[in-house]
């Protein structure tokens, strides 16, 4: 994966839990442009481990002068967001991937309905700029528990088609009303907690929306768990996976080449064949089917863990 070494040119606290970071080329050279909904993967040294977290780009897709991301601090996570909040400052150099997009707009749609919950507003901040430029009709609905937690309010333009729903103010989203009455050919996009994504999909199905018009992106991170070992079939090498380390991170640290993109179990890039399994794979991804999970012949190293006596990978 191509990487860029960029300078941190701005850090801004949007809420006590969310910071905005801006990265620019240290020589002022233009950065590759991207499409709305794209993300970058940020590398964060943490002892002998390099954490790699993917974040949606929130800046203008057509502005090559810099990239911006918004990071919510997760104190119970594995440390990536905490590192961004506590160790990254203006003037630092940071390594990021070139942008990739797993949550693109379908520009054939007659209209776009964007629904974001919490930090799930981030991919829509670049998408709405793309839609404005393309002069395509859309409406955006942003839900948060309180204004203090609604980091997206400071980043959203004020317009009649931008709607903010604050639960503690009694202004919850009414998904039935939001999804009803749109012209044929409208597409809906959801990003946020899995409960919100499921609720939008259920409501869309009840109203007869075709599944091809319903899109979503979930923010997930590999869960911690018990340490385990894997064997590399081609070399016989044994790789130890720590309790706070994903299998993908352990393979990277051991110098085992493996492809990846989202690092959240959604894109399928790191799918790996299992050549021997004496135990139980803990599948935490959104990629493999129920049958594939039950067969235990494939694994997504970015999200999955293992309990048992032997796990051998076709690497």
Automatic annotation (TrEMBL):
Fetch the InterPro entries from UniProt: 2Fe-2S_ferredoxin-like_sf (IPR036010), 2Fe-2S_ferredoxin-type (IPR001041), Beta-grasp_dom_sf (IPR012675), DmmA-like_N (IPR054582), FAD-bd_FR_type (IPR017927), FNR_nucleotide-bd (IPR039261), MRET (IPR050415), Riboflavin_synthase-like_b-brl (IPR017938)
Single GO BP term: methylation
**Source superkingdom:** Bacteria
Which key words are in the record?
A: 2Fe-2S, Flavoprotein, Iron, Iron-sulfur, Metal-binding, Methyltransferase, Oxidoreductase, Transferase
Tell me where in this chain the FAD-binding FR-type domain is found.
Answer: 1-106
PROSITE patterns xref list:
2FE2S_FER_2, FAD_FR
Q: What is a single Pfam family found in this protein's UniProt entry?
A: DmmA-like_N
Q: Name one GO molecular function term.
A: oxidoreductase activity
Under what name is this protein listed? Flavodoxin reductase (Ferredoxin-NADPH reductase) family 1, Vanillate O-demethylase oxidoreductase
Q: Which organism is it from?
A: Roseicyclus elongatus DSM 19469
